[in-house]
## 1
Amino acid sequence: MAEKLKIIPLGGLDEIGKNMTVLEYGKDMIVVDCGIGFPDEEMYGVDLVIPDFSYLVKNAAKLRGMFITHGHEDHIGSIPYCMQEVNCPIHGTAMTNGLIKLKLDEHRLSDKVKLVTHKPGDVVKAGCFSVEFIHVNHSIADAVAFAIRTPAGTVVMTGDFKIDPSSTDGMTDLARFGQLGNEGVLALLCDSTNVERQGYTPSENTVAESLDRLFKGCDQRIVVTTFASNMYRIQAVLNTAQRYGRKVAVTGRSMENILKVGQELGYLKVPEGLIVELGTIKNLPKNKIVIVSTGSQGENMSAMYRMAFSTHKQVDIMAGDRIIISASAIPGNEKAISKIINELYRKGAEVVYEKSEGLHVSGHACQEELKIIHALCKPKFFIPIHGEQRHLQIHGKLAVQMGMNRRNVFIAELGNVLELTAKSCKFNGSAPVGMVLVDGYGVGDVGSVVLRDRKHLAQDGMIVVCVNLSGQDGSVITGPDIITRGFIYVKESDELIEEMRQVAMEAIDRCRAKHVRDWSAIKSAIKNDLSGFLYKSTKRNPMILPILMEI
Amino acid sequence: MAEKLKIIPLGGLDEIGKNMTVLEYGKDMIVVDCGIGFPDEEMYGVDLVIPDFSYLVKNAAKLRGMFITHGHEDHIGSIPYCMQEVNCPIHGTAMTNGLIKLKLDEHRLSDKVKLVTHKPGDVVKAGCFSVEFIHVNHSIADAVAFAIRTPAGTVVMTGDFKIDPSSTDGMTDLARFGQLGNEGVLALLCDSTNVERQGYTPSENTVAESLDRLFKGCDQRIVVTTFASNMYRIQAVLNTAQRYGRKVAVTGRSMENILKVGQELGYLKVPEGLIVELGTIKNLPKNKIVIVSTGSQGENMSAMYRMAFSTHKQVDIMAGDRIIISASAIPGNEKAISKIINELYRKGAEVVYEKSEGLHVSGHACQEELKIIHALCKPKFFIPIHGEQRHLQIHGKLAVQMGMNRRNVFIAELGNVLELTAKSCKFNGSAPVGMVLVDGYGVGDVGSVVLRDRKHLAQDGMIVVCVNLSGQDGSVITGPDIITRGFIYVKESDELIEEMRQVAMEAIDRCRAKHVRDWSAIKSAIKNDLSGFLYKSTKRNPMILPILMEI
């Protein structure tokens, strides 16, 4: 039997984020992207979510390289965790590698991992694969798609992209997609994030125009907050400030970082003297200042948050300040952003944030742009990626509308193994996948049991019942003592706590009367009785921990 | 000194929900609305938020009545809690009182509280106040505004409203607002919810048109989910079903309730034979069925949720079903709704939910409608209500744009006392206000301490350290035993737990060596040492509970 090309999504399907895809052929394997996911609201205390790397570990000998489309967290964030388990060269563009390097430094992995920098047009050999870098537009500089030559045929992976004909660094390389289509594309794996939206995503240029409108004639201080990773946007703010004779001060760690990296790598052109120290702006007139800040997603303790709530050491928002929020809310962040906006209004600031103001554009392709890619690539098989179930399904329908046979569309689940030959594609088997939770230094030590307990504790708090029992006859020597946290306000609940003591004591007495000496049975009795009593009297269900000690 | 009219907002400012306003003059006091607020994501385990009623309790002797604008939870939800503390007649329209009665029944208060039903146009005397009911459009039937005659002048309170000229039960009574304006309005208290939106809110009729488009020619089963309280919407679904020869089955408790109450009170016209039992629909062809369901906000365990996740006892979603989500997400519910939509797609259903489909309209007035009310009422003083800080501020600006003197706009904080005469309005003093948290049967027993503990427990779980110390010399008799919940997966953490035991033991030994016998000092030592050790080794900060028992 001839070898087949295997495509295995390890992340990025049925979810937004955690993007990671394996391509395997015979003794060779490569990985595209290695991102983090974000914990949902039920994952109490979890910092981030990474893919399960066990398939890579098991096949480490085959691993020829990792290829990264761009430098957003959901495409690079898991690299340090992955590189602690396997090792291979990482290939990316200059900007992408700049951001990866910051991560590797932080995890002290820079010496161990080889980072290789390429330009669009470059072709990289990795085992039987050869990977071509193709320029695409996205909300971060230096993003690429990949055309991956395999013995079974060419696979095109778009990464995150949109088509912006007036982008300052050139439009997505549609000509190249077209050539590839003419040569024959076996499979297309395409970004599905914006597939629900009709039409086209507006150009990043429209934001620059909006900024101009808001700077023009403004005689107040201006504060702009946006995504630190969007260098185009930051450049536009710098240019607009320069045009209107304002100095720029920067606040927030990731914004300071990006300014440094962006300048070093030549992605940001900063006119001399434009940037000033935050501490010096008090000496400037209000209409000569722009503050560029992190916190566009309402992040707690971000620079914007601290300025709004007067806990920033250097800057406080003043009445009359014009605050420009050049971002839209990532789902789940609406309330946090709203909280900051309310506080800014309370201080008498003018806040500009409405969609209608044209202060943000998406980084992802809408329906018409997706159709262009489908029409250019003319793939034999189509595998929608980067999306929740609904995005994948709608993208599948879009492909069918574009003339593709319904049976050539493959909506995969994470871990599904897709086997391709030059003529066929089918599901065959599966690889281990899952969410590995990162909490502090712990990777994977928080699982469903711990999360269930955290949720239980969060809902109704907990009660510890401490008793010392006699080793001889099981009688109570001291206790039961009741300690509660997160259940009720103890200082006003003496009576209830005394009742709980009684209930626990009766449970122990009952066990003793029945000659029950098995401690787990006594614990169960205490737990059940107390739980019933508390539900009846408070309609709450705290966690109950009976602790028995033998004397 | 002559008496003054006091207006005191007890809820509904700087927040969406919990609406409640006090009007007081001399020995008379009335209350308008008595709603609940919804806990934010940091209020772990809290079911709902109600206003602080202590100002009412303190002035109970003055209380002449409570007036309710409409039957939404954020205007009636706190009534049962309030009526346990004070008692007065409650005045509302038929639909509003129907919904209040359900609540009073549930809390066994129906016998104690007098509900008085009125129609638009009615005028109710309450002490020195007389309150006129004025018909307005909103997303629930039988909503009213109030014109309140006081010795100081007329106060107009809009309640929640919009202006829908093609509403099936007639447009908001603009003529009456105009007459009041001509007679002279002292103060306007106006809904600010949609003040950020330009233009007009579309008519509820447009939703009926969209439903028609989606029913027409559909040969599949149709499932519609919407807000149970929107009788207009439900009537439109019934009418459309009738028109296309489909039977209607209803699922979800609140939807069943509303169908019953709506029919009893004559707000829903249900053609005979249209409604069928859910259990019988399996005998009908697919194109003869509409299922009307709760769950438009993605509520866990709602009928829609259960149908999507195959835990509904009677109905499962099938490939081809057309699911119509006739609602938009209330901020904070986006992810829950998205989860259901993904599951529906996974089952092969067709889901219609986009804004562009015209499946929902707001119940609140946009800018142009607000301007109409301002222009008609021509109030001397303006107090924006029902909104977060930004809504209040923007509404204030809108009033100024409409020609009002900036000094006549009063953006109040909860509890501010506004004192009005026929010619003046000013802030003077404050009343106690706040959020009272309801958790199970407990009202107010969960406060900041309990919430802080719940948050701490939710983040990193907890550790109990149990030690028996000798009463004679403070030496360790048994323990320290370590019990954790929500911290780490215990079965794979033997080593860490043993280290924790060591750290605790060393802390105790150190205390003993220093002849420390004060138990709280020993507890602190255990807590500090363990906490430092754990942060260093895991970067987590679980709650640590040392329990010392003396033998």
Note: Chain B is about 30% helix and 25% strand.
## 2
Amino acid sequence: MNNRYCIIMAGGIGSRFWPLSKNNYPKQFLDILGTGKSFIRSTFERFLPVVPAENFLVVTNAAYKQLVLEHLPELHPEQVLCEPMRRNTAPCIAYANYRILSVCPEASIVVTPADHLVTNEGEFQRVIRTGMEFVEQPSHRNALLTIGIKPSRPETGYGYIRRHVAEDTTGEIFEVEAFKEKPDLATAKAYLADGNYLWNSGIFIWSLPGIQNAYRQYLPDMVNLFEKGRYLFNTPEEQDFINGMFPQCENISIDYGVMEHSQERYTIPADFGWSDIGTWGSLYEHARHDDCQNAVSGHAVLEGTHRTVVNIEEGYEAVVQGLDHYLVALRDRSLLVCRLDDEQNIKHWIERL
Amino acid sequence: MNNRYCIIMAGGIGSRFWPLSKNNYPKQFLDILGTGKSFIRSTFERFLPVVPAENFLVVTNAAYKQLVLEHLPELHPEQVLCEPMRRNTAPCIAYANYRILSVCPEASIVVTPADHLVTNEGEFQRVIRTGMEFVEQPSHRNALLTIGIKPSRPETGYGYIRRHVAEDTTGEIFEVEAFKEKPDLATAKAYLADGNYLWNSGIFIWSLPGIQNAYRQYLPDMVNLFEKGRYLFNTPEEQDFINGMFPQCENISIDYGVMEHSQERYTIPADFGWSDIGTWGSLYEHARHDDCQNAVSGHAVLEGTHRTVVNIEEGYEAVVQGLDHYLVALRDRSLLVCRLDDEQNIKHWIERL
């Protein structure tokens, strides 16, 4: 049990939830759904029955270190790893791997984003335990496991995993045939009908030796950069070393850098009420609705308004009338009013501000 | 010239421009149109070529006295008369009349709301002078003159004046046949087609003896209340007297209390670019428009938005997308998003907050 580690990737700056999430307060620190807990807090608590608190590592930007410690006061400051800049997930995970390597070379690791929603935490923990037990078997030392989500709709906002059709050995874990990019709607419908496609949750499980082998094979340049400081991890020199070498790391995701190439890829098709709450639309889907199908948080009066997300900062009040399927969000002296169906353009609008 | 006085009625608390105007900062103190001047400041400057600064009286609530003096620093504090409560226009005007009576019993007076828009100030001043000269003639000592506005559309938001069809003596001033309540649309269209109906601007001109005679005749109880303190006006006891007697005054408008009954009512049909800017819709009509017919003030980006009023407080920013003929106003920690056509219900929505 003490060999089990959890890496929480919490470096996102996410403009998709503007104006709620901004650079100084990104989504993982928000309680967008009104559950009483931020996403990062929920993520931590969700893994806590599987991984002891002292075996968590949170990788984030230096600017958010204090915020992470406020949300997760159980952590020692040294458990928060600071990237000097965003370099996508492959360097992020490599950094955490090397830190773990310095204390527990035989660790089994689960890697997770900090800002997902899970509604069935019991089933979630069962699935994570199943995955960790799988990669802890000597015969699966090089297995790279991705949690797959059984799709419930032809979602075009997620990447997909095509699992092997053949029966697997465990009854629950399948080999991966291919990773698929976000599909168009027709393709997503075909995936759903096919039955062998899963959503890529971005949650990975592997043994430390296994993922290290994969990095050495598929990202040797990155490994060479980290190896130069191999003995600096867990020492006072670690941060300086990282600050110096991180900019030289390739800006590449774990999916493109490792998973695409691996020959020992597995997935567990899971169903634990998962969403990445990556858009206001998905927030709308998961939020509590009033009689007119509105999702309201904050002090707001709605009149003749339907299927609309209204999110008003504390200390403000709002009257919203005559809208159908809109988003009205006021936070941090910024207001957004837009059609929910057009939210993919938020980034462009903000640029014009 | 020194017998000419101007009474500015500035006691309104106006919720129609919520959230811009609230109890602590009503419409007359706002620069809603972005002209660089508040309504009360514009009103004062508009009358200044006709009435000397020392002959202005502003009647307002005690709570706004400082605000009035900030907007009109030319005034002596004693020129700001404080009502202890709102009691509609008849008591308001009576109070100012008695103050003037104590210093200039033969005054001619123009009475005006504090929050109207006039675009042709030269023509406005000519009309006001014409009216004052009219009531200054001994033969028109009891004339009560209302400025009428030549209607340009079948407006249902204003009261109307039906002028006498017969030719008048001056070539410009007509007798009033009747005052009409705000009409429905069909009636408003008939008024417009008729050609003898004018909008009631709420601007009145009379001699002090003439209006005093009318009060004595039509509001004798109110006159009795004021007469008890006749010699207290312009003394240190004035405010205490007013505070004590004002609550006993009937809550009645000058229109219902006096004008309805008067036998010597006149009007000047005028055309000087007038609006009472009583609604967001009229604000929209008079504001500068962008290429999509939006009226925008503040730091806002509009996308796919048309015929919409966007009014964002300084220090805030907004993205507004996908609206047609809406109002988006953010001020003083309150947000309003509604259809412009439904703004008459703002009051009810605020009550629900």
Note: Chain B is about 30% helix and 25% strand.
## 3
Amino acid sequence: MKKSYLKNYAKLIVRQGINIQKGQNVVIVADLDQPEFISYLVEECYKCHARSVEVKWNYQPLTKLHYRYKSIEALTEVPKYVLEREEYYVKTNPAMIYILSADPDGLQGINHKKLAEVNQKLYPIMKPYRDARENKYQWCIAGVPSYGWAKKVFPHLTKKKAYESLWEAILKTSRALNDNPMKAWEEHNRNLKQKMDYLNSLQLVSLHYQNSLGTDFTVGLLDGVKWEAGSEIALGTNIVYNPNIPSEECFTSPNKNEMNGVVYSSKPLSYQNQLIEDFYLVFKDGKVVEVHAKKNEELLKQMISMDEGASRLGEVALVPFDSPINQSGILFYNTLYDENASCHLALGVGFTNLVDNYENYKLEELYDKGINNSMIHVDFMIGTKDLSIVGKTKNGKEITIFKDGNWAF
Amino acid sequence: MKKSYLKNYAKLIVRQGINIQKGQNVVIVADLDQPEFISYLVEECYKCHARSVEVKWNYQPLTKLHYRYKSIEALTEVPKYVLEREEYYVKTNPAMIYILSADPDGLQGINHKKLAEVNQKLYPIMKPYRDARENKYQWCIAGVPSYGWAKKVFPHLTKKKAYESLWEAILKTSRALNDNPMKAWEEHNRNLKQKMDYLNSLQLVSLHYQNSLGTDFTVGLLDGVKWEAGSEIALGTNIVYNPNIPSEECFTSPNKNEMNGVVYSSKPLSYQNQLIEDFYLVFKDGKVVEVHAKKNEELLKQMISMDEGASRLGEVALVPFDSPINQSGILFYNTLYDENASCHLALGVGFTNLVDNYENYKLEELYDKGINNSMIHVDFMIGTKDLSIVGKTKNGKEITIFKDGNWAF
């Protein structure tokens, strides 16, 4: 891929994504696949006068080895310095960039019971630090190709061709191949906000999903909880940032106690870098009561058992079937892209910052209002060509939101 | 390079290098050049029942960016968690593996005054933790190729060929291309120990170096300070480990107050990944009083000004001109290899564990005996085909140690 495009993409992530401010610290979390691109990000941060940029490197094969050989005791040891480091992040509030490139199926074969046990033990220890930063910092998730991921997306191409094709697909869906990606994103944000404003104006109390896969599902929405789209604002600041590049969705957090019916997945789900495929979930009174999957059913069951909130929804998101990402015809096997090609739901924690005047409440109070809480947040795709969504408004009116997979208005 | 050779090399580093023991932690410090090889090391550590293996990744281009853009204030900030982490290492005493692969000239252009200032500020803060672990843990330095380094060593080969050639050179000089590298190292250690024992039996009080480059230099040796070679033993344990792979040297720490004369470099020196070339140093009463270099003289001057001990020697090492590494005819531009192809000296801190019964003294007492102390330890090569070294013994006898660049006995 041409260097100039990559530098534009880095610029987009730093300026439109986290919108870094003079004197701020940045933490970049990345795999080892694209060190040169990461150096573009780092330099761009510094050019915007970041004070300090730290890169935390991950490497999937080492994750596999650690989970294979380390004891639960060693995997869940949290030395004092780790907590001190979290404390430091709470104090210095760095912006976060997450660069995804891992093979979506690369942790296949890992002991997922062990992984779950470790996550369950670590979660309560790390939660106070996560909560202390909740909503307060700019963050952005974006992707770059690895050879492993590229071959999964383009199995019939050579390694090199697949890799180049994935770069192109990523940059295109991220609007980074435009002459002026920054301007393209400003316009894109305006369009998304129009849809969002319309949804907010409807004062919906529920959505009813139906399609030919078998989905027949109703979800309750909360009074005083907004729809959101595109850019957001960090709590206590006026810094506008884009948490996802790309982003095509309008989303909200539903009432964690009001989900009923059956919902079918329409794309594979990469959870902890293992693929779960062809699954459906049955909900009753907000909780999953039945799951089936043709591939990795055990892992799916594990996932929804992580904690009480893992079997409830934290997010409902609307994306038209004719979204540019879906039109590309590419199945990315990566939620960042596939969720923006399809209507989706997320099991697990919801978005407390969607509650009106959320800044005046404690986190626990926001969860008490009906926003779900959990250690997980896992999106899965349910949009199809024939999906219909009918909304019910506060005053009992039925409004068609989606028809034949697309916006009905 | 064939996977089986690489796995053998990893095995050699883990079993013969750090000689990891069941239940120990390991920290591996590596650049991003050879993630797959690093995963072999990690797996080998776990197979030897290491408790936990942590990899700290470095990336030269980021180092360059940090030093270019960050303020001295930000570069020298030491958050509490960093000290807590050092404390954790003091407590858990992990074995350390350092894998070198950086371009020996890759930091050319960096602001070395800024780098020096940062190191000078950080050194006293980190020193107590370094001192607390001194001599107590197993460590091993070894190398793997990067494309940048390979092209420096083999400028006339294609990138790929250069890279393969450097792998071969590294494995060959490390005795890792043998059928049984472990056995080859046991034999090699025996041979080195024979030379070491002979040197120790001589009770030398000084060495006089001469060659046609212009070297005419005398260094005083300390009573009660041994020569060492090959494997060592971690303080307070009976764990035998090999700190350098490869290693061809017999070395000792000289009297920091007794160095006089002029000494010429015989190979380039990569200091902080910048090359210093064609230099000489003039010593008087243990201290450098004059330096000249055809390339990077300023950096050399900076180096010997880092602290009081930076202009005194901490190491004197003997390597025959016909050593296998020198016979390969390859100039590695990397001290780990080049120092084992040539007699060398090191400016900076000496080896306190060479003092008889060092375990009975405090570190400061060992330095008071005449072992040099400094924040740096930089080896530089002085061996030539015509180098002669004449030793003087305790009872005044002169003994030829080196003749025509090689052992005289």
Note: The CA atoms of residues 31 and 58 of chain B lie 5 Å apart.
## 4
Amino acid sequence: MLKTYTYSNLDMATLARLCTRNTDSSGEISAAVNGIIQQVNEQGDEALIHLAQQFDGIRLRAIIADSAHINAQAALVPEHIKQAISVAYQNIYSFHTAQLVTEKAVETMPGVRCWRENRAIERVGLYVPGGSAILPSTLLMLGIPAKIAGCKEIVVCTPPQKDGTINSAISYVLQLLGIDNCYMVGGAQAIAAMAIGTTTIPKCSKLFGPGNRYVTQAKIAVQAQFGTAIDMPAGPSEVLVIADDSANAAFVAADLLAQAEHGADSQAVLVSNSALLIEQVNAKLEKQVALLPRKDIATKAIANSYAVLTDSLEESIDFSNAYAPEHLLLQTVTNELLIPKISNAGSVFIGHYTPESAGDYASGTNHTLPTSGFAKAYSGVSVDSFVKKITFQAITPEGLKNIGPTIETLATLEGLQAHKNAVTIRYE
Amino acid sequence: MLKTYTYSNLDMATLARLCTRNTDSSGEISAAVNGIIQQVNEQGDEALIHLAQQFDGIRLRAIIADSAHINAQAALVPEHIKQAISVAYQNIYSFHTAQLVTEKAVETMPGVRCWRENRAIERVGLYVPGGSAILPSTLLMLGIPAKIAGCKEIVVCTPPQKDGTINSAISYVLQLLGIDNCYMVGGAQAIAAMAIGTTTIPKCSKLFGPGNRYVTQAKIAVQAQFGTAIDMPAGPSEVLVIADDSANAAFVAADLLAQAEHGADSQAVLVSNSALLIEQVNAKLEKQVALLPRKDIATKAIANSYAVLTDSLEESIDFSNAYAPEHLLLQTVTNELLIPKISNAGSVFIGHYTPESAGDYASGTNHTLPTSGFAKAYSGVSVDSFVKKITFQAITPEGLKNIGPTIETLATLEGLQAHKNAVTIRYE
């Protein structure tokens, strides 16, 4: 049962509170993570072996999962799963490959030609969580754009299973992607290892991937301490559904629960201009949650969530933009009119037949998305995340005559005589 | 006189050392900056007034520079400077506006349509350094792409001059850009104020702009502590020139000095397959540096710099890619052949008549670029830096039949029953 707030009654403080998540900023996690980073920095591979034993009770025979290991594990994947992975792969590939565009040069003045070219980040590190859940979809979502971008070296860290092997579906995706740099390391120590480099694990320029709070904190810490680029900060997953009277309450409830089952700290927010719909969704939630294998988690997440009753779809969008959801679902009669009004969201799912789980696995869009309000400033992962756009300029002697006086005047204004000289000397 | 290393003699450790800059990671700056951030967080505007007095000896009458102030200052700008600013504005505008592209939708499967749309980051904060240098060009480089992106609110912080006013050229650019949120605050406290928000200064989602080591450290700190997005980490400016026998030694020397005059910690690296050219450049450096108003700074920077003698242009590019320069100049007979081999650089200047100062002011490319090796993972500022790319997907009932089984299989594989249900319930 979702606690319901009425939008027109919300004061600024309550609105701000409803839009705040991920408030657990206890120094405890940060201190533990800094300790792990220091340990990896000082002891390298030895720390990785020690920490796997300490945290996961796993005695690693090797840090690297060699190709014999990967191939043996991949062979265990049943045919129907291979087929599903293949469909997802194709869709993700075709959506992401369209993102790799060649831009035209611009002649900003006669003889002054400027353009951008993409260059792949040469070595990237992908973190694929393991432990309780296995997430081959995460490897697809990170590995495919990295391949399309043309990254020369793709490093993957993922925690081994209790028996010391890499999960079979993840192994199959590694095989599909042709990635042979896979290391059996999880947690904050995996992030530290890819940021700093160890004897076995290469130092990466940019790190990607979701994870628990330790992993997330480790990404933030290595970014600040070592200048390692990261895809984005991350928090618990979340969904916001904007629905009106046209929505099917059972569909909405199912979408909210798909988010809620991720974790007790996940948030599932319903925003509607229909009190009746909210009531109906609550009824469906109660019915559907009872049947879920992860009903304890989902129940906690729903208790942690809420509904907002608005007077109009405009108000619904206003609330959504203030919340800046990772996933935004539009299930109204006027979805097309709402799209231009969306200013902050990670990924948007339009219409009654577009469940959020489609984007998690197979529609083609990326599921690595900004949570916790970061959609105000960050995009989800795309091919762009794996390239740099380098600017180029070529000026002809004639072009320099056209642009030179401007450069000379501005360099003089800023008191940078040598900047001016670099132009003047070329006229002489 | 540049100290010269021979590429083929470099061992890995020396190569790594030559490619390392910005090594001053004293905890002193970090501690001072954290103190300032805490002060701004606790005392807001009061801290800003107090710190202006303490660090700059300026008694602020107001934090905001109102439009009367800006207009009065802008009116002081001489006509020839207005014209130069106008040319730069046009070129920067035309190059950056070409970056704003509309992408086509991709139908990844029949009935499954996916696309991306740009949305401006609503409130951005631009830092324009002041103090010893005045940098209207920085405001052009940040303000123009922010305007093109469509950012609703553009906040500018810049330190006031000793007389408590905003510099006239900066005021003129503010007027040109139509920005009326300008605050007379500099240093780490400006970064803290825009990240946290005060009574006067609005909290921004993303911060941009160069600055001294305190400003840079403050950006890194607010990113880690408050989740504020930043354009990129930054360090001292740098140039790497690849030149062969075809190069004009006087041009090369002028380009190296244009970098060197920025600061004693700037780096100007010459990479050449011609020992003769290196010798000639050294001779020109000595001659040219003596005439510079900032010769003390430039001399220190040159002492801090070096040349690398290679056997070939291929080796020159290899060294450059390892160094990952902010600015890369190609002054060889085979520039076009070298371009595809460039993997890491911020902005590239091609040919004998393309001085780096062209890109600083007026060619049209952005001068806010990754330094200190960050060009391995980061791009310079562009319109992309001011937008999010939101993904959208719309699936028809028919489309869900096509894609549904894939989603169901993968959700089951990952143990997420509610993800599967969100599809299944839509078939029923």
Note: Chain A touches chain B through 127 residues (CB under 8 Å).
